[in-house]
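Objective 1b. Sequence-to-structure analysis of Alpha/beta hydrolase fold-3 domain-containing protein.
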Amino acid sequence: MAAMTIDPNLTLQINTKSQPQQRLVAEEIDGLIRVYKDGHVERPQIVPCVAPSLAPELGVTCSDTIIDTYTNIWARVYVPNANQSKHHHIPLLVYFHGGGFCVGSASWICYHEFLAKLASKANCVVVSVNYRLAPENPLPAAYDDGVKAVNWIAHQVFVKSPQWWTSKCNVSNIFLGGDSAGANIAYNVALRLRPSEIKGLILIQPFFGGEKRTNSEKFMVQPPRSALTVAAADAYWRLSLPAGADRDHPWCNPTVKGAGAGMRDLGILVCVSEMDILKDRNLEFCGGLKASGCRKVEAVVFKDVGHAFQILNKSPVSEIRVHELICHIKSFISR
């Protein structure tokens, strides 16, 4: 079995302009982010950003909307065109993209295509939140943005605002979800909300860590161009955690203080990739949830694929697993 690699068709577009010699690099994740000691941050355009347009045959309407002008939080909304009856309401999934809290966008083409497909196949409204990134905005900025997004959505629904998509949502069927760092955000946002505000969590390869390495972190061989390596994960945590915090901070390692506080009756779907360095960490998290009394935890392991397979790999195996992933999500939100 081969470990997951980023699709070679995604071309790195690295800024090759020479930098002043006095500018020293503090942190760098090759091809993704370079942070200088003077605070300057560069993010090469590794993945194209696209407008909110979709092929008509997909059967999904898409548009961007502003959530907060002061912090520049916005979202991309996907609404399936089927079942547009005035009295038919469908589940709402608030989704957070991955990228180690430091890179990524709701307008990245890989997320645009995946979430459009998810909205269509799972028959749900998807609100993909574009939150503030570290290191300019370290945690808990992304969590704060997530809470603000959920509260904004609830306000739009209950005040019957002119937002074109709110009338199609079932407000008793609101789910939070995301992949990698986005799954971490979804989990930590849920901790900040009242249990009655959401129905469930969909956590795809949640990005957690810890000072003590797991077996999959130590021994899972990752080839060049892997979507996530241990070195990259460590760098993301250094850039995103509060100053002085280590990887046993509860935002990184939720099992330190007991995972899932207040989530006893919340449905939680955790999607784990077999070839991911986070595999053991994800399964440990599921065990921690159950030990804390969470009664509705479902862990699904996807064979022969690695981190971010659903957005960064187009292999035949990945395509099959994406179909399986969407089927699991559809079943979960339809209960």
